Amino acid sequence: MRDPVVDLREIARLLDRHGGQTRRAQAFRRAAATLAALDPAERADVDRRRAWGNLTGIGATTTKVVAESHAGRVPAYLAELQAADGPLVDGPNPLLAHIRGDLHTHTEWSDGSSPLEEMALEARRLGRDWLAITDHSPRLRVANGLDTERRHRQREHIAALNEALGGFRVLAGAEVDILDDGSLDGEAAALDPLDVVVASVHSKLRMDADAMTVRMVTAIANPRTNVLGHCTGRLVAGDRGVRPQSTFDAEVVFEACRQFDVAVEINSRPERQDPPDDLLALAAEMGCLFAIDTDAHAPGQLGFSEYGAARAASVGLTPDRIVTCWDADRVVAWAAGGNPSANRGA
């Protein structure tokens, strides 16, 4: 017997995986949540009457999926998506097998679409050993950024989840706004206990190049910064349109990353592809550390690491220079400020 909840969630995952279609995927995720929330008696009654379409959050398309699944058939919509599924990158992708974790992901605690548990379970399904949850900082209100109290509650949630998962590790992190003066958004009480901090510019991306350089270097020099997120802020495709990259002295910024042992993020979202090819090659040549991150806002987007792995290989990076190819203990020790030369590997 098929489970319509499982089928609805799998459709959402595949929609997110191919093109990051979060809005459409959310409809299937909401329908799955509606069914899953019913107690057994309610569920049996709805199934008996085939009254799924009367439930809030279940529309015509999702009703059809539920009906087909309830009848024991693979829903046609799911079958179509499964037939089209495959690697996101053509050809060999040698670094992909070395990726053990992800340092930049979001959940429904901020602007992600899924619970923390679903993100962790999907990462484990993909063969990862660990996953950092890095929901936004408080200034980014449009993304429901976490204040100190909510950050504390999320850390407690993560600790409980780690107890339940066993063997797979969830790291408590944050994606923190780099403010205009280069300071980090958030109180020390929120940031200091975290395993990892990704620092990113989200505002005034067209700032003068000299001022942007100072802003970024100031953030990189902050001892709490571990990863420089999507460094140019550009968008090259997608629902949000396109956005030019910010300008700064890349050599100065990447040298700061090298000196302060901050990883340059290879943001794997297809609409970002950040840093651009020339800056990625420059950072590689300068000896920086890197983090292949998905910036996933839904479980299906965790597969975006395929894109980042291919880009990392294109500039000759090896696993020892990619912190997301390290085990969780090494990542946590590095993020806590361990000896940079020891952490770089051979």
At a glance:
This protein is of the alpha/beta class.
Folded structure, characterized:
This protein has 346 residues and is an alpha/beta fold. The chain has two domains: 4-84, DNA polymerase, domain 1 (Orthogonal Bundle); 96-343, Metal-dependent hydrolases (TIM Barrel), CATH 3.20.20.140. The protein is built from 14 helices and six strands. Strands 1-2-3-4-5-6 form a six-stranded parallel β-sheet. Helix 1 packs antiparallel against helix 2 (22-37). The chain starts with a helix and ends with a helix.
CATH topology of the largest domain: TIM Barrel
Assign the structural class, choosing from mainly alpha, mainly beta, alpha/beta, alpha+beta, or little secondary structure.
alpha/beta
Number of domains: 2
Specify the helix fraction band.
40-55%
What's the Cα radius of gyration? 21 Å
Low-confidence blocks of residues: 339-346
Going across the biggest sheet, name each strand in turn: 1-2-3-4-5-6
| Largest sheet entry | 6 strands, parallel
Q: What's the N-to-C terminus distance?
A: 52 Å
Helix count from the secondary structure assignment: 14
CATH class of the largest domain: Alpha Beta
| Structural shape | globular
CATH architecture of the largest domain: Alpha-Beta Barrel
Determine the strand fraction and express it as a percent band. 5-15%
CATH superfamily of the largest domain: Metal-dependent hydrolases
Kindly report the average pLDDT value. 94
Order of helices and strands: HHHHHHEHEHEHEHEHEHHH
